[in-house]
Amino acid sequence: MLAITDHLAEEKLARRADGVSILSLATAVPDHIVTQKEVAERARAVWPQFYKLEQLFANTGIERRYACEPEEWYLERHGWEDRSDTFCRHALDLLEQAARDAVAAAGIAVGDIDMLMVNTITGIAVPSLDARLAEKMGFRSDVERLPLFGFGCGGGVAGLSRAARLAQSIPGANVLFLTVDLCSLCLRIDDPSIEMFVSAALFGDGAVGVVLRSEPQGGVDASARPARIGATGEHLWRGTGRIMGWDMKHDGFGVVLSPELPVLMQEHLGEALAGFLDRHGLALEEFDGFLVHPGGRKVLETARDVLGVGEQDLRHSWSVLRNYGNMSSATALFVLDEALSRSARGRHLLTAFGPGFSAYFAVLEL
């Protein structure tokens, strides 16, 4: 019996990322700013069959977003070759900006990075983005690389959690986690589906860079670090593969976005979160703030109800939704950046959701 108890204790310890500090965080967006009103006017021209649903754009909680290309690009037809070239060019530019800013803010040099992780869901590149970025920026030839794909909107939190595990495995190593999603480039004007129309109302482009390092508790001045990562975890709901994701179409990614998503979250997010907290001996009452991926107005309203909090408690999420829209994987980390810039302190729950369908959790001490 004692051996079983010890084993369970070891498993619980293995699921934690205590001692991993976030040294810095930097965000990057493309040059083109587009207002929600402008996007609604374009959508009216492309999908006139949905004119009765135009109010959707006004009800998202979004005021503006950022896009990689000028307006005319989105009103033209594009195939895989064109989309891939455009994605790689813009993704590398934003990744380089986020990486350089994050490395500089951490007070280290590019040559000090020991591990490099790059996540995305909106494009495919071989060689992978991390390999291309390593050559472009001059990372060490022995830097350990890990490309991530498929996490969707959950990729920021899922990737951060995995980066923390890597940092934990080699104390003192500098891990650079990057995520970029260029959702606007997935627009397909020949797709007459309601899913494409809805996604046009929500998604934008952005990238984030985070530098992490495993440091002993008490070994550094905590006030010198923006945040420390505690427990991390996730929950996969079986039989939900068609809630969110991509279909492979002849001219690009075809969006899968089920209207059942808010119902799924309303009915099952609470138990998934409770399970995560129970495994780590935590309670909602112990948190000073909640950093929720703003997938859209309905996602935030559902999360608010499940968490039993008020609008003000999700103010950082609402602010990012209003000013950037849903940038898929980057969005949750934009929320973290917003909280840090507003001098948020204490224990915060960072959470996001993605294809699978899955929820991802990370406990942060800001």
Protein model, in words:
This protein is 38% helix and 26% strand. The chain has helices at residues 2-14, 36-46, 55-58, 71-74, 80-105, 129-137, 155-169, 194-200, 261-279, 297-307, 315-324, 331-341; strands at residues 16-28, 32-35, 64-67, 115-120, 144-149, 174-182, 205-214, 227-236, 244-249, 252-257, 289-292, 347-354, 358-365. The protein is α+β, with helices and mostly antiparallel strands. The longest helix has 26 residues, at 80-105. The strands form three sheets. The protein has a nine-stranded mixed β-sheet, with helices on both faces. Strands 2-3 form a two-stranded antiparallel ribbon. The chain is built from twelve helices and 13 strands. Strand 4, helix 6 (129-137) and strand 5 (144-149) form a beta-alpha-beta unit.
Which helices and strands occur, and which strands form pairs?
Blueprint: H1 2-14, E1 16-28, E2 32-35, H2 36-46, H3 55-58, E3 64-67, H4 71-74, H5 80-105, E4 115-120, H6 129-137, E5 144-149, H7 155-169, E6 174-182, H8 194-200, E7 205-214, E8 227-236, E9 244-249, E10 252-257, H9 261-279, E11 289-292, H10 297-307, H11 315-324, H12 331-341, E12 347-354, E13 358-365
Parallel strand pairs: 4-5, 4-6, 11-12
Antiparallel strand pairs: 1-7, 1-8, 2-3, 6-7, 8-13, 9-10, 12-13
